[in-house]
Amino acid sequence: MKSMGAGSVRHALVRPVPYSYDRCIRTSREKIDVAIARRQHDEYCRALQRLGLSLIWIRGDNALPDSCFVEDTAVVFGEKAVICNMREKSRANEVTEVAKVMGELKETYRINPPATIDGGDVLVVEDRVFVGISARTNLHAVAQLKKILGNSRMNVVSVKVHRVLHLKSACTYLGNGVVILSKGCFDTSILQGLGKIIVPRGEEYAADCLAVSGTVLIARDHAETRKLVEKEGFRVEELEMSEFRKGDGALTCLSIIL
C-alpha cells in the first residue's frame, strides 16, 4: 500500500445534509431521496473517521439546500484558509459559518468581487495549485489566489474546464505523484510529470476520488476504475454516492480536509 505524498491530515470539515437538499442547484431531473442522502452522508463521515480523521461539524442550515457540499466554500493551503466568493447567489451565505470556524483554525483570507470561485475548482498537487476556469470560477480569482500565496512556494496554474461543473469533477490527486482523470474536460498537458490514471468511458464520475492517508475512496459500481487505482498500489474503499450524483456532487464535495 502506498503512503500519501501530501503529508498527514487530521481533520475534516463536514456539514449536515439539509432537509431541503432536494432543492439544490443541479442538472439532473432524477428525484433526490433526502433520507437516503442523509444515510449516505453518515456512511461517508464514518469512512473518514475510520481513516483516522476527526470531524469538525459546521452548523447545518435548511435554508441552504447545497450546503452539504462544503468543499466549495473554502480552500486550505497548509496554515492558510481562503474563503470563497461563490457565484451562485443562493449559495453565497454558505460561507458564513465556515468562515467562523476557519477563523479559529487557520490564517484566513477572502476572495473578493469581481472574483468568483468554488473550492471544487481548486486542485492542489504538492506545490502546484490548479484552478479550473469554469461557470463558477473566473480569472480574477486566480489573480487573487496568486497574491495570497505569493510568499509560498506554490505555483498557481489556471486551466479552462469543459463539460463538467468543476475541475475536480474531472481530476483528483491520489498522492505519490498520481492523479486520476477523465479525458476531454481540460488540457491535461498541465499535469506534466505526474502519473495519470485515465478512467474508462462510462465511469467518468469516478474521476472524483477522495484520498486520505493512502486510502482512496471511490464511488460504488465503478469496477474498472477500482482495478486501475488498486494496480497503482492504493487501498480502495467504495461508497454509495447515488443521491449526491443527482445533485452534481461527488466525494470531494462533502468535506474540507485539514
Verbal overview:
The chain is α/β, with parallel strands linked by helices. It has one domain: L-arginine/glycine Amidinotransferase, Chain A (5-stranded Propeller), CATH 3.75.10.10. Helices cover 20% and strands 25% of the residues. The strands form five sheets. The chain has a three-stranded mixed β-sheet with strand order 2-1-15, covered by helices on one side. Helix 1 links the parallel strand 1 and strand 2.
Concise description?
The protein has helices spanning 34-50, 95-105, 139-148, 223-231, 242-246, and strands spanning 11-14, 54-57, 74-77, 80-83, 107-110, 122-125, 128-133, 155-160, 171-175, 178-181, 195-198, 210-212, 215-219, 235-239, 256-257. The chain contains five helices and 15 strands.
Query: How many domains, in number, for the residues?
Result: 1
Proportion of residues in helical segments: 10-25%
Listing every helix as H and every strand as E from the N terminus to the C terminus, the arrangement reads EHEEEHEEEHEEEEEEHEHE
| CATH domain fold name | L-arginine/glycine Amidinotransferase, Chain A
What best-fitting shape do the alpha-carbon axes yield? globular
User: Architecture, according to CATH?
Assistant: 5-stranded Propeller
